[in-house]
């Protein structure tokens, strides 16, 4: 497998380089080539397989020529000790793909754990410490922190917007210690992301530090996210209906991962891009004009992204062709009031407790099904466990939400963060003191 930059498709780099470098020097985004085609037989065979088995089968198709089979099998199984079940809300019609059964209770565990496993595999071959920088709007940080905690040869620095993540999300980033440290930025997620991007092009920093990213600009976060789309397809294919996925989106890594496996042959009839008021992509789908905005704070904070990094990947996968994009993806967006009403309605209608992000996905799916009038099997990605947003969910539903043990125990740990203003130089100065 080789990787090319969306800005210069002619030249390619190795798997290891794309993994550690994260972003090409020309500031494009890496894409895998050639994408293997998974035929009909592949999908029939995986119907009853675990996420880890599916992950291994696809990994082998991708990296079988570079990583020894037994090592690849072991690292995939270590990365996925959990499943991603499809739960029917209305049998054969509307369902959710629960992606929150991993350690941080959000779908980002899938990408972060696989990437950590690959980095740990490749870093055994070198003696230089890898410094991972990651900006988080809420859930990435927790998944990355847990995925990389105690991985030898890797140090992780997480940047998060102060006061804009939930209390339990913050605990996930700030209480592990060891090789994980958190910078509490007095600004927005976009500020955090801008600082990280600047660090990658800072010649002075890169001269003596090996910097790497765990954001969804890193293609190795996205590749494993394709595995659960395949797993979901396997779980619903017996209904014999066209499959539509609805993805509650922010930085659009999740939807790009879906579009990538679609290109590998997964029979996806359509995607729904569901967002909160940060609706640049639904607006693009409507008007044909892509106009990034400053991010707006909402109750679905993990999707508060005004300028999604992965839009370029989606555009690239659809050949920079608006019509092709529109044929494959429909956009819907909801404000906070609609999101609250949606959470309540989903609970009343299906007895299903959803976090605000998941509710937006389900609403997008329902609205798409109403508008398109197609008889499809709709699968909405459930991106986080509702208890990660306990105060909000309880207020909206009017009854208590159970917190899984592994999250509940965090509440008692004490937070440790490094507060900084939203300025690159301030970050650089504090960061250099820690390495
Ligand atoms: C990160 C996140 C999203 C958005 O995913 P993208 O891949 O950035 O589009 C949605 N929901 C939750 C709970 C998240 O943590």
Structural summary, described in words:
The chain has 435 residues and is an alpha/beta fold. The chain is globular. It has a domain at 84-106 and 220-397: Rossmann fold. The longest helix is centred in the middle third of the chain and has 18 residues, at 219-236. The chain is built from 19 helices and 14 strands. It has a 6-stranded mixed beta sheet, with helices on both faces. The protein starts with a strand and ends with a helix. The model has no long low-confidence stretch (mean pLDDT 94). Keywords: Amino-acid biosynthesis, Lyase, Pyridoxal phosphate, Threonine biosynthesis. Its EC number is 4.2.3.1.
Q: Could you give a short description of this structure?
A:
This protein is of the alpha/beta class. The protein has 19 helices and 14 strands. Pyridoxal-5'-phosphate binds at residues 106, 108, 138-139, 216, 248-254, 302-303, 357, 383-384.
């Amino acid at each position: 497998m080789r990787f090319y930059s969306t800005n210069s498709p002619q030249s390619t780099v190795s798997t290891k380089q794309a993994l550690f470098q994260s972003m090409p020097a020309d500031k494009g985004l890496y894409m895998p080539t050639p994408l293997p085609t998974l035929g009909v037989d592949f999908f029939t065979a995986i119907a009853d397989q675990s996420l880890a088995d599916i992950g291994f089968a696809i990994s082998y198709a991708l990296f079988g020529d570079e990583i020894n089979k037994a090592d690849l099998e072991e690292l995939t199984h270590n990365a996925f000790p959990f499943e991603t079940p499809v739960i029917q809300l209305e049998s054969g019609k509307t369902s959710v793909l629960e992606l929150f059964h991993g350690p941080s209770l959000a779908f980002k565990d899938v990408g972060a754990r696989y990437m950590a496993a690959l980095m740990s595999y490749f870093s055994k071959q070198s003696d230089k410490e890898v410094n991972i920088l990651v900006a988080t709007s809420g859930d990435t940080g927790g998944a990355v922190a847990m995925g990389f905690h105690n991985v030898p040869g890797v140090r992780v620095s997480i940047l998060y917007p102060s006061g804009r993540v939930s209390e339990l999300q913050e605990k996930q980033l700030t209480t592990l210690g060891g090789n994980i440290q958190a910078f509490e930025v007095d600004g927005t997620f976009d500020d955090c992301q801008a600082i990280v991007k600047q660090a990658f092009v800072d010649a002075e920093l890169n001269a003596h530090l090996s910097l790497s990213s765990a954001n969804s600009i890193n293609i190795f976060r996205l590749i494993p996210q394709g595995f659960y789309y395949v797993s979901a397809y396997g779980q619903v294919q017996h209904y014999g209906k066209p499959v539509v996925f609805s993805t509650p989106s922010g930085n659009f890594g999740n939807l790009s991962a879906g579009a990538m496996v679609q290109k590998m042959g997964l029979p996806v009839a359509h995607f729904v891009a569901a967002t909160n008021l940060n609706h640049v992509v639904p607006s693009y789908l409507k008007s044909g004009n892509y106009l990034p905005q400053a991010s707006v704070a909402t109750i679905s904070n993990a999707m508060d992204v005004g300028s999604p990094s992965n839009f370029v990947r989606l555009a690239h996968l659809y050949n920079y062709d608006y019509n092709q994009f529109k044929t494959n993806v429909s956009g819907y967006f909801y404000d906070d009031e609609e999101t609250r009403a949606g959470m309540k309605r989903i609970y009343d209608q299906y007895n299903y407790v959803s976090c605000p992000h998941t509710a937006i996905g389900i609403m997008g799916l329902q609205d798409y099904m109403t508008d398109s009038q197609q008889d499809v099997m709709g699968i909405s990605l459930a991106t986080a466990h509702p208890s990660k947003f306990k105060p909000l969910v309880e207020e909206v539903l009017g009854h208590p939400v159970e917190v899984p043990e592994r999250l509940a125990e965090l509440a008692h740990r004490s937070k440790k963060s490094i507060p900084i203003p939203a300025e690159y130089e301030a970050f650089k100065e504090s960061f250099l003191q820690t390495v």
